[in-house]
Amino acid sequence: MDDTRVVERTGWAPVRHFAERSVLGLIAVLAVGLGFGVLLLLVRFHWGPLQDLDRSVADGLNRWASGSETVVAVLQQISSAGGRGFMIPLVALLVLMLIIRRRPRPALYLVVTGLGAMILDPSLKALIGRVRPVVEVPVATAPGNSFPSGHALGSMVVYGMIVLVFLPAVRRRWRPFFIGAAAVIVAAIGFTRIALGVHFLSDVLAGWLLGVAWISATAYAFRMWRREAGHTDPHLTDGLEPEAGPDLRLAPAEGPVLPHPWAKAAEILVGWVFVFGLLYLVGYTVTRWTPGFDTGFVEWLQTFRTERLDKWSWAWSKAGDTHAILFISLIFCPLALALWRQWRPVLFLVLTMVGELTLFLCAAAAVGRPRPPVEQLDGQMPTSSFPSGHIAATMCLWAAIAIITMARIRQPWRWIFPALAVIMPLGVALSRMYRGMHHPTDMLGAAILTTAWLTVLWFTIRPNAHPASATEAASEAVAATDSDRLEPAR
């Protein structure tokens, strides 16, 4: 009798739990889909109470937001995290990281789910044809129709599927905070769309409901795919592919990033002060004693000015501004983590750019060198001429990337990075002098900053210490995990 009960319990319990989860999930998806359908009909047939609520909320938030330019700027920054210009590069970067980590199934899930959301949004907007709100004080504009909110739909889909895919990489006690953070981001983006006066409350609610329904449908299809491939159905709190956890963790087997971190921090601080002193000394010298060629070379470059060269110099100059440098850094750091599973090279690059920015700002403020006495195509700048921030940032970024990659890539094409470390700063330097913004000695200051600061970080961070050790250890950890998972079946 006892044996029969044991057999029944072990045989039917998993089936019962699966059936219960399936039924509850089906009910939840149907409820979400029904809610969206009802909301769509109410909007389509202009139901009075809903329209009154939409106008009341839109007008109230518009009065609150329009009273402060700072509030509007903050709302626009938060709203940009739900725009296509931010989310498409984010998803593309995550897909590339998953492919590098040899997880094509979740990568394909991100692609399919994201593309589906991009198709749903304009299709429904064209079908419903609802115009955007008309508020008393317009503080923002948006193209196209209003229902549903594309930002609300896109953010729910993108951040929701990121949670589902990367949940296995998060420790269990931190998973509620991970999910909560994604929920706060989605809610904040939806709120900003109403407060900026470009969507009604019902537009945002519809976007959220449609987003939940879409990621639920694609997650169910993914589970069916796993079942056909012979995998078990994981619990929702374990993510879409729990066995991918070791591969999804950024640096699973790396030891301490830096030994004796407080001592290293002191060394870096002392090095920063030394580099600043060197920059100030050189800047003071060239400001009080300006070589003849310093202004003459800039004036000579002005003789070549044409409309076409002005455009080319503008493009080269943009390659060294804050946005371009930050964009490249935000792409390189995640890819470096995905490829080599080490935080140390990422820390090296981050400290390189933070040090460059602070050294440039402090040195420029202390030296106070005026710009060249020629026509300046970029107008009045908030900082002084020495050293050049554009050139220094470009030098530091590409030199740091070259240092990191040359120690880890063995193929012949690795020489591309040292070449970029020469070509990019030269192009930016010529463009800045052509545009009348810097002297040649400002470029010298940028070169001194780059050389001295990278030398300090090279001897303190040691970015290339055992570059392959973390990757090998991570591979061994993954292999051990797979072995443990297969052990009961032997």
UniProtKB/TrEMBL annotation:
Stretches that traverse the bilayer: 23-47, 81-100, 107-128, 148-170, 177-198, 204-222, 268-287, 322-340, 347-368, 388-406, 413-431, 443-461
InterPro entries: PAP2/HPO, PAP2/HPO_sf
Keywords linked to the UniProt accession: Membrane, Transmembrane, Transmembrane helix
Matches recorded under Pfam families: PAP2 (PF01569)
Coiled coil: none
Key word tRNA processing present: no
Span of domain Phosphatidic acid phosphatase type 2/haloperoxidase: 107-219, 346-458
Keyword match GTP-binding: no
SMART domains in the cross-refs: acidPPc
Protein name in UniProt: Putative phosphatase
UniProt organism field: Actinoplanes missouriensis (strain ATCC 14538 / DSM 43046 / CBS 188.64 / JCM 3121 / NBRC 102363 / NCIMB 12654 / NRRL B-3342 / UNCC 431)
UniProt lineage: Bacteria, Bacillati, Actinomycetota, Actinomycetes, Micromonosporales
